[in-house]
Amino acid sequence: MTGVRSVPVGERRARLARRQRVAPGHRAADAVDAARSVVGLHATTPSSVYLAAWARVDGFDREAMDAALYRDRTLVKHLAMRRTLFVFPLDVLPAAQAGASARVAAAESGRLVRELERSGVKDDAAAWLEQARAAVLEALRDGRELSSTQLRDELPLLEGGIPYGAGRSWAGTAPLAPRVLTILAAEGRVVRAGNDGAWTASRPLWATTESWLGRPITPLSTQEGVAALARDWLHAYGPGTVEDLTWWLGGTKASVRRALHEIGAVEVDLDGRTGHLLPDDVEPLTPVEPWGALLPELDPTTMGWMERDWYLGSHRAQIFDSAGNGGATAWWDGRIVGGWAQDPDGLVVLQLLEDLGADARATLEAEAARLTDWLGGTRVVGRFPSPLSKAVAP
Questions:
Q1: How are beta strands 292-295 and 329-332 bridged, if at all?
Q2: What is the rounded distance in angstroms from the CA atom of residue 204 to the CA atom of residue 312?
């Protein structure tokens, strides 16, 4: 790649440490800053939002995250890229809605209509879905916050479900109410408001977006949203390839290439692969002092790229499950070197896959002790345990 600047692995790891706020001396100011530094925090596992912020904010307090989510509302849970639940700063929400969520909403609507008609549950599924959407929005008028169960109890239209697994031992019925709420959330019309449970659980109360945030989400075109997300991603995760960004967005290569052109992204050489950086971010960064970190399952840093060899090495089979979900990880100097788990008493225990030497191990053991103290005996149960966590007893 003649005439193109080469970005070595060491520089990519230094960028990761600085931009994603995981190295001491480069931490975020607060929970909102932590979320913005990675575009958004993965929220599929409720506790991961808090643990990801703990890893990025010195002196992090759970109450600060609760305040940002539920009182100040400077962070909001929103279904977006790859049909994944994220926590976004408010200023990122319009781009996420236009560049990712709207596409998810269209796909989910189509899928539900097809399933309803195939199963014979509804004759005119599209008309029923439109009525169900309108009924939910009407029920949430005037600032009401209701759970999925409460909405179903109030609205006969939401009763019933779609049968699955006929004749199998695992057969059952998938309720309709959560599916309708998923579509409305991806459309940006409702949000997960309060949480009727502990920080380790997800029992959302639903509200209209306008009542919860005080205004609707600012409308952007699809391409405006994709371009804004591409710019944010390159700042946080760059350099990266077209394949990385396409996977992260859950979009198409054509839309990603168009967005990279619109924002003036600059090509760089990533060990023979073509990567991209923002035009005002091409200068090399100085190295970062060796650092260690413990990150939760589905952490944005673990999940931020499709091509992961430069920070994952040979550990993919131990860290990622068959569906591509990354488990809890231990990092040393910009790469994954193992995982962590809790014993029955809540003690955080390292599960290292390499001999890192005494200094590195001491740093990670100190992080494990710090996390144990912060958790204070609370055991967090992951939804996506890694093969390593299953195979290695803490």
A1: antiparallel
A2: 34
Beta bridge partners of 161: 175
- Cα 115 to its chain centre, rounded Å, is 27
Task: Provide CB contacts within 8 A for 283, sequence distance 6+.
Answer: none
For residue 1, the model assigns a pLDDT of: 60
SS3 of residue 268 by DSSP: strand
**What was the pLDDT predicted at 391?**
67
pLDDT for the residue 255: 97
Taking phi over 0 as left and psi of -120 to 50 as alpha, with beta for the rest, 25 belongs to left
Q: What is the pTM of this model?
A: 0.95
Q: What is the DSSP string of 338-389?
A: EEEEE-TT--EEEEESS---HHHHHHHHHHHHHHHHHHTTPPP--SS--HHH
Count of residues making up the chain:
394
Q: What is the mean pLDDT of residues 160-177?
A: 85
**Cβ-count burial of 376 within 10 angstroms (0-12 exposed, 13-18 middle, 19+ buried)?**
exposed
| CB proximity list for 79: less than 8 A, separation 6 or greater | 85, 86, 101, 104, 182, 185, 186
Which residues on neighbouring strands pair with residue 195, listed in sequence order? Answer: 204
Return d(Cα 337, Cα 275) in angstroms, integer. Answer: 25
> What HEC string does 118-177 produce?
HHCCCCCHHHHHHHHHHHHHHHCHHHCCECHHHHHHHCHHHCCEEEECCCCCCCEEEEHH
H-helix or E-strand spanning residue 271: none
Bridge-partner residues for 336, per DSSP?
A: 331
